[in-house]
Please model this.
Amino acid sequence: MIHRMKAFASIALAGVALLTSPAAYAEDVKLPPTMTFTAYDTGTAGFNIAVAVGKVMKDKYGTDVRVLPAGNDVARLAPLRAKRASMSAMGSGTYFAQEGVFEFGSKEWGPQPLQLVLSTVDCNAATLGVAKDTGVTEIKQLKGKRVGFVVGSPALNQNALAILAFGDLKQSDVKAVEFSSYGAMWKGMINNDVDAAFATTITGPAKELETSPRGIIWPPLPHNDKAGWERVKKVGSFFFPHMATCGAGISKDKPIELGNYPYPIFMVYGSLPVDEVYSITKAMITGYDAYKDAAPGAAGLGADRQTKNWVVPVHPGAAKALKEAGQWTDAQEAHNKELLKRQQVLAAAWAGYSKANPPSDDKAFLDGWMKARAAALAKANMPNGFE
Model:
């Protein structure tokens, strides 16, 4: 009898081991035969990481993943809204789209119910790269210099302004040079059409600039400069101090005190079914070892390395997969519910404003919306974020 009980115990333990093994954990991943993602331009960190994730989905689950490069936030989101793509590797434009600000405050858009899958914070940073031949070594020295901006990309533009704010500079203090896309802006850096441009330190174009005759420098954002960081956060509340140890001209031996936020942010629309997002997230979690070294920055997608309690909610399907992986807490669930409630408040405010015969002029429309948005958030006792 004792031997039989030991045998049963062994079988039971084996069953538990089987249920908790990575293979068993991935068994209920059901991906469609084809999927389309959008990302930043070809060669960027976001694009390269999306391709690496897509390859694992092909190798492990037989799903063909197509990654569409797009030069700005509007172009990245349009295929998702039209249901021609399921997921995007976005940047801070995820937050701006959720809030319905900048380009997303236009009649054609409004607040978008975007929700997170997984995002990455790795050894890189996100900041202004500056051509070394300018002689600039501090952000404040960019006064009067040419700084790149991308039409239709509030994320890149607002991020550039946030970094300029560290040096107590505004857009009017620099010579703004507009480009049609992120890729075009960085080609402008190499071609000496512009002196500074926003990027993640591991982006391909930054490496190209480093090896070009102009060279590259990342002016530091010293973490002990409290006033400088207060100015940054007033313009970009999603930034935080971060020590960069990788990127063009950066290494563990030559780290730089800079800033960062999650990038790329793999996000979907809240309307995407829970089961589908659950499977996508689980595939990314269980396939992590296969892609984490395939592209710079991909290692930051680890389930245990997720930025907690950020400014955009996690999709319920992704939360379910993270919870199964032991990376979701009750505190996160409570925070997430508040963020989902915020999206409901914004959606209701947009619907009310749209029905109230708003101005036809684009600028007047945006001004009116920002006032209606502020009033709705104040009534709900929620922070504005864009005073």
In short: The chain has 14 helices and twelve strands. Residues 1-25 have pLDDT under 50 and may be disordered. The longest helix spans residues 330-355.
